[in-house]
């Protein structure tokens, strides 16, 4: 069992997580038990300073490794609400958006649209029109039908639209199958291997109201190794060189997507993002020299690695159910509606009792949600001090793909997002009310 009583507790995954003199878990310097009392549970917490630090890590490392034209784009599918786009704009980040809803949110936050990239494998005509009329910087085009639809919409408006083409480089990184997207058999993009990528490049170059600026790939998510990114960079540059020799097309931008991993468990490595980026930079420089091409501007699209460890979710423990010979369930007042990732991917998380953070962990628990569904679990096999009704349960590293994947299943109101910024804390998204739940019911 885990011996706590000191700050070497391996469950404190990141330096923004700690334990104070009262034995309470702290996050970004704030007592989580006090926050739970003040704001209620379930509660999403976000460490604003951490988010800004990560943006700067990417920006500085990318400038160093790839030069001035490089830019990190925040993959806002990982965390999307108005304030986050304001922070991204203040940090000089670009953004990746995947729907008109994300675009609208970025727009009302005053995010500069020229730095927004519109993704997705099935943009509707309405999406395309809305994005062009909003002044979207780039579409990341997925297929020929979409290219034609964008060309038509741009022609109607008398403009020429910048695009990148999404290419599948055929890489299979070691990550969860459902979040692995760079393989040939993927609903995303055009594969190099099948010749489709070269074909769609020719088609894009032939359309009058489209300006092809370069190529995009995204090989997957929660990847710990740097090698798949080095492979992706080499493959994308070779493809760019080939397009130059076939069509005389000079690639301005290559976007290497997102995907760098984060620590959900003590046994996960802490990734040095700046070091990875420097390594990718060296490979890009060498590969361009070998291929005899100009180095394009390099973009990356981190989501998880910007926001995941800037987040924590707090719950209140309810029922403890011991099923002799099987297991002990502790149920919390949230679940798959605010964090569907265990139900979807069996995603690992570190769970602690925030109000008893230094107590001996003598009970192995399954942490269950409150939804009417047996798969509604937050985590299995978690060692905790024997939980009691009213305990504050903390789930670490929930900044990415939690709030953004939340639902109202079982008509549970979505929790608020409280931002911690130094001594200050403020509500960035308020808790949903019952009134919100029935707002659209006619
Ligand atoms: N760019 C593109 C085109 C993407 O599809 C994604 C993620 C990213 C960037 C950002 O990847 P990141 O840096 O966050 O790994 N819901 C899943 C993750 C799905 C990721 C989808 N695409 C999860 O909860 O793990």
Label this structure with key terms.
442 residues; alpha/beta; nine-stranded mixed sheet; eight-stranded parallel beta barrel; 12 helices; 30% helix; 24% strand; globular; binds ligand LLP
Give me a quick take on this structure.
By secondary structure, the chain is an alpha/beta fold. It has helices at residues 32-39, 48-66, 82-90, 100-108, 125-133, 144-156, 196-206, 227-247, 273-291, 304-307, 341-345, 434-438, and strands at residues 17-19, 25-27, 30-31, 43-47, 71-75, 94-97, 116-118, 138-141, 161-168, 190-191, 210-216, 253-255, 297-300, 311-323, 327-332, 351-353, 363-368, 377-384, 392-396, 417-421, 424-429.
**DSSP summary, beta strand count:** 21
Which structural category do the helix and sheet elements fall into?
A: alpha/beta
What's the end-to-end separation, in Å?
54 Å
Arithmetic mean of pLDDT: 95
Low-confidence stretches: 1-6
What fraction of residues sit in β-strands? 15-25%
Bound molecules: ligand LLP
Radius of gyration: 23 Å
Q: Helix proportion of residues, in percent?
A: 25-40%
For the biggest sheet, the summary is:
9 strands, mixed
Given the C-alpha coordinates, what overall shape results?
A: globular
**Tally of separate helices:** 12
């Amino acid at each position: 069992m885990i011996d706590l009583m000191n700050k070497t507790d391996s469950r404190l995954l990141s330096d923004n997580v700690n334990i104070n003199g009262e034995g309470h878990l702290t996050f970004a310097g704030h007592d989580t038990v006090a926050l739970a009392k003040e704001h209620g549970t379930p509660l999403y917490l976000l460490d604003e300073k951490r988010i800004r630090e990560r943006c700067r890590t990417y920006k500085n490392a990318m400038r160093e490794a790839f030069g001035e034209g490089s830019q990190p784009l925040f993959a806002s599918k990982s965390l999307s609400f108005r304030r986050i786009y304001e922070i991204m704009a203040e940090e000089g980040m670009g953004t990746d958006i995947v729907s008109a809803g994300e675009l609208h949110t970025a727009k009302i936050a005053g995010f500069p649209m020229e730095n927004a990239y519109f993704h997705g494998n099935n943009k509707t005509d309405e999406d395309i029109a809305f994005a062009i009329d909003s002044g979207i910087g780039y579409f990341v085009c997925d297929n020929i039908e979409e290219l034609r639809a964008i060309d038509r919409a741009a022609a109607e408006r008398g403009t020429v639209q910048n695009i990148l083409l999404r290419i599948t480089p055929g890489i299979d990184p070691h990550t969860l199958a459902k979040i692995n997207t760079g393989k040939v058999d993927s609903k995303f993009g055009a594969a190099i291997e099948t010749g489709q990528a070269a074909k769609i490049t020719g088609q894009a170059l032939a359309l009058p109201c489209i300006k092809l600026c370069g190529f995009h790939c995204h090989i997957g998510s929660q990847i710990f190794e740097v090698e798949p990114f080095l492979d992706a960079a080499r493959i994308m540059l070779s493809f760019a060189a080939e397009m130059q020799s076939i069509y005389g097309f000079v690639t301005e931008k290559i976007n290497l997507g997102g995907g760098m991993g984060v620590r959900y468990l003590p046994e996960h490595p802490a990734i040095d993002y700046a070091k990875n980026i420097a390594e990718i930079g060296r490979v890009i420089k060498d590969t361009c020299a070998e291929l005899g091409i100009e180095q394009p501007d390099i973009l990356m699209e981190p989501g998880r690695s910007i926001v995941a460890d800037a987040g924590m979710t707090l719950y209140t423990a309810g029922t403890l159910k011991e099923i002799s010979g099987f297991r002990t369930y502790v149920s919390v007042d949230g679940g798959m509606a605010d964090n569907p990732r265990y139900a979807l991917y069996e995603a690992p998380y570190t769970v602690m009792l925030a109000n008893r953070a230094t107590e001996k962990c003598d009970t192995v628990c399954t942490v269950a949600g409150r939804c009417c569904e047996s798969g509604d679990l937050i985590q299995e096999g978690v060692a905790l001090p024997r939980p009691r009704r009213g305990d504050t349960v903390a789930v670490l590293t929930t900044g990415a793909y939690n709030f953004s994947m939340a639902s109202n299943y079982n008509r549970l109101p979505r929790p608020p997002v409280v931002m911690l910024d130094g001594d200050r804390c403020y509500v960035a998204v308020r808790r949903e009310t019952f009134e919100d739940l029935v707002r659209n019911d006619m």
